[in-house]
Amino acid sequence: MIFGFGKKKDDDFEEEDEIELISFQGPHNGETIDLKANAKLLDAGLLPAKEIVTDAILRRADMVRIDPKGDRSAIYLIVDGVAYPGDRLSKQEGLAVTMTMKLLAGLNIKNRTQPQTGGLNSSLEGKKYEIVVESQPLETGGERLNIKLRDLAVKLDSPAAIGIPDSIKDRLRELAGEKKGLFISAGPPRSGLTTTSLALMKVVDVYILSVYSITDMSNRDITNVTKFDVNPNDSLETTLQRIIRVDADFVFAPPLRSVETAKTLLEYQSQLALLTEMPAPDAASAILQLVKLVGDPALVANGLKAVVSPKMIRLLCDECKEAFRPNPKIIAKAGLPAETKVLYRAPVAEEGEELEPCPKCGGIGYYGRSGIFEMIEINDDIKKLITSGAANVAQIKSAAKNAGMPTFKDGGLAKVAEGKTSLEELQRLFKS
Ligand SMILES: [Zn+2]
What we know:
Layout: H1 7-10, H2 13-18, E1 23-27, H3 39-58, E2 63-69, E3 72-79, E4 82-90, H4 91-104, E5 116-124, E6 127-137, E7 143-151, H5 166-176, E8 181-187, H6 193-203, E9 211-213, E10 225-227, H7 236-245, E11 250-252, H8 259-268, E12 273-279, H9 283-294, H10 297-303, E13 304-316, E14 322-324, H11 328-334, E15 343-345, E16 366-377, H12 380-388, H13 393-402, H14 408-417, H15 423-431
Parallel strand pairs: 8-12, 8-13, 9-10, 9-11, 11-12
Antiparallel strand pairs: 1-5, 2-3, 2-7, 3-4, 5-6, 6-7, 13-16, 14-15
Helix pairs in contact: 3-4, 9-13, 10-12, 12-13
The site of zinc ion (ZN) has 6 residues, from loops.
């Protein structure tokens, strides 16, 4: 266990008093919480809930998970996408915290058999945090709780901030300039997908193109992207017709979740460029998923322009990373440039030695993440593969590689060569 959750309890009282706890400021859905009727629950759950969430934020966690396990509740902190076990609570404490967080997020605490999602505003040390609470009923009984945390001051929507390389930015700007075609940003959940889409919106040349959004941008405002006033009763088709009338060139459209959305976007891509999101493990899989969804390979081959897919890679902590001289065989095997003389890694303890935890990263060895990206552009070879209707992921990937399109591996190795991440992190990322 890296994080000493329980440690706070051993500290003397004076020190504990100095820790400011998070303040919860009401659910997103605007519901008023009946504090009086729930006084008993809040009495048991509010303080531990505040302690858990405060601790998670101070340790830079993007999520806390509370899992009932037998007569205990286990807490996990997800930091930069990796889960670390935290303290264990008794079953009663775990239940009280779970119910309290549900109540504060405006969820129905009596309903324990259906998944629910809600959000609440909060602040800690003058900074605002958005908290999203998800409850999931478990087959074994009880509920799992995910508490997602987002620092509202952190803006990760610029292409540079999430690490989109110039090669991808330049090419996308060129393609978007043609003012037609469907662009997809594809990735698994929590891979930085929305962040990537928002960054891609910034890549296009806003001085030449008029850029609009007709979908939810997760409450983020982007300079030069106009939020189009969508009539909630209009179909996607009607909205697209309306936006064509205002001379939109590039439009951020709703995610590709249904056949209708996919077909409509493919039909309208000849009149304006469209960017959409799709849950998929990688770019090649997204293309085949889309073919399967619409059932018309030629429609996809002719309408799709490019797919960009992100993966988040952890960056080494610059306070404690260790330089080492890599073995030339390892350099060659990894595919790094032969002239690579120095690489970096997280500190490794010698046998029998115990490392003093780094004050910056708490002994994790990594601090923060950056994106690495692959992009598949639909060139003639890939168009043929798609139209054949029989292509597989490996064939599309190899056609993209042969054409020199950027791969995840290129992006990851570039970060290793720059000393920003380690070969171990690259291996971890591609194993999962
Ligand atoms: Zn460190």
